[in-house]
């Protein structure tokens, strides 16, 4: 699979293009309604941004209804600022929320 996150903020920079992070990967483990483990790598010219990362997403029932989502990133390249990783994760979760709430992809 290949996916991209596009940053709308004019001062945001991407690893694959001026305002875009593109990555590819595969699902290493899927447990329905509980766990998703993805193995990912950025598409980037800079070798400091290369390497394989693992993203583990755990889903649990939230108290009072809904679902708690815990995302753990492992193997993020040192050249990727923590703030950039947090922004990308937040964007992905916002897109997921919109999809769940509306049934439409963003």
UniProtKB/TrEMBL annotation:
Belongs to the AHA1 family. It comes from Streptomyces azureus. The lineage of its organism: Bacteria, Bacillati, Actinomycetota, Actinomycetes, Kitasatosporales. This is Aha1 domain family protein. It holds the Pfam family AHSA1. Residues 22-101 form the Activator of Hsp90 ATPase homologue 1/2-like C-terminal domain.
């Amino acid at each position: 699979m290949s996916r991209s996150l596009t940053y709308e903020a004019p001062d945001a920079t991407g690893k694959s293009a001026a305002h875009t992070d593109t990555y590819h990967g595969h699902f290493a483990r899927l447990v329905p309604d509980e766990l998703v483990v993805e193995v990912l790598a950025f598409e980037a010219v800079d070798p400091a941004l290369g390497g394989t990362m693992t993203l583990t997403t755990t889903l649990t029932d939230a108290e009072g209804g809904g679902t708690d989502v815990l995302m753990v990133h492992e193997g993020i390249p040192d050249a990727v600022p923590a703030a950039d990783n947090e922004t990308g994760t937040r964007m992905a979760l916002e897109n997921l929320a919109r999809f769940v709430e509306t049934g439409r992809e963003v």
